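re: ur question from yesterday

yeah so i grabbed the chain u mentioned. its 287 aa long if i counted rite. heres the sequnce exactly as i have it in my notes:
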Amino acid sequence: MSGVAGAERVRSREDYVQFVKSYSKLIYQFCENNILYYTGSYAADKSKQTFGDIDLILTIPTTLTKTTLKKSLVEFFHNQPEDVIVPFSNSKYLDRRTYNSGEIVTVRYYDKELGYSAQIDSIIARDYAEANFKRKFLNMPASIQGLVLGLVKIAVLENPATELFDRLGIIDPGVLGLDQEYEFNLSSSELQLRRVQYAPWTYKQVSREILWTSANFYYVHSLLSMTSFDYTFVELVSKINSEIKNPRSRERIKGLFASMISIKSGEVGTEKGSEKEKSLALVQQTF
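ran it thru and got these structure tokens back, copy pasting raw so excuse formatting
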């Protein structure tokens, strides 16, 4: 069994496609203008044949807040028959039929043609720009995602801020006060420039103010102009190690990577868990 839903693993790439095909017909009843995009390990690793769950970017054009949209979607799922949206069998979430967390709505969906159910995580986007940003970020392998998050975070530590602002077309970033610093932050939704307030004489953040945002993934490439996302994980670790200069950068990369790449209880002793252990060890040893 897999994930919060306790559903079976998806047995093949062909089954994955069939699940998405029939699930899309259900979502069409909720919103005719929706678009579903493949993401996660199905898109990032073409050699992978079985899957613990199905990750999809669900684009629903709307002016509603994401919270309101997700609440409406959850209500829609609960109105479906239990042989379509199946109760969870995971003991921690037994008999629940949805799991609403962050930007994701999770269900256990039964495909009548395949004869079994799978966990589907719908990552919600409210417009096509946000959906495209999510695709660009989430379609990278998780280990590369972790490194890219770190590179974005250390951009101002490694480069003059004015140079980065010129590169991104940021005209008025605001003025820094005492114990403040600029910081870029990347999520699956957008790139942000923040003004961070530290406690005096420390690097403990006490507040953050967002000064600029963009949902155009081009700006992530512009910010990290020294880096190509086409490197393998090992190559990218080596390249970053040879180029970063600030000791704080090394600690940030290690910390962000460790928070991004965690080994879940169900992954212990598995190939996936072993790969995560190796990547965590490499980052800790290198930086």
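noticed a couple things. The longest helix spans residues 13-30. also The longest strand covers residues 116-125.
anyway ttyl
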